[in-house]
Amino acid sequence: MIDFLFPVALFFVFAVSAMTVILLATGVYRSTTEHSSLNYTARTSLAYICEKIHQNDINGDVVLGTFDGCDALILKQPRREDTYQTYIYVYENELKELFIKVGVDAPAKSGKTILAVEDFSMETVKDGMFRFTCTDADGNRDSMIAGIRSR
């Protein structure tokens, strides 16, 4: 009888241990994906803006202004005979980007959506330093200060 009960008991111990490991792993996976999605929203938008500032930091061509009634980060880009501007702004709770030739009119809705946000603000801290604050749809808030070096 013991020859039968011992392998059966050992099988049940193994099965319970395997189920416990699987349940613990799903909890860890769920936690990791939640933290990953938090990093994608607010921090991603701020990192994107910081990278755009660094790419266009030539001759002080990075300023804060307005575009179609929206506060905007304006990145001027001279190309051969023409000058273009990239506007990064918030329109209807979406962070948008629009690359357009200077002098051409376009509505704010025509920009390409980068990311959905609940709130986004830009301000000049001092000459050549900007603060960007982003609140995502889940209410997570993040902030960043970026400086331009070309001045």
Report on this structure.
The model has no long low-confidence stretch (mean pLDDT 88). It is elongated, with a radius of gyration of 25 Å. The strands form two sheets. The protein has a five-stranded antiparallel sheet, with helices on one face. With 151 residues, it is an alpha+beta fold.
> Mean pLDDT, nearest integer?
88
Shape: elongated
Q: How much strand content do the residues show? A: 35-45%
Largest sheet: 5 strands, antiparallel
Number of strands: 8
Task: Give unreliable regions as ranges.
Answer: none
Helix and strand run: HEEEEEEEE
Proportion of residues in helical segments? 25-40%
**Class per helix and strand makeup:** alpha+beta
Radius of gyration: 25 Å
Strands across the major sheet, in which order? 1-2-3-4-5
Which terms summarize this structure?
151 residues; alpha+beta; 40% strand; elongated
In short:
The chain is α+β, with helices and mostly antiparallel strands and 151 residues long. It has one helix at 2-55, and strands at 62-67, 70-79, 82-91, 94-101, 112-116, 119-126, 129-135, 141-147.
Fold topology:
Elements: H1 2-55, E1 62-67, E2 70-79, E3 82-91, E4 94-101, E5 112-116, E6 119-126, E7 129-135, E8 141-147
Antiparallel strand pairs: 1-2, 2-3, 3-4, 4-5, 6-7, 7-8
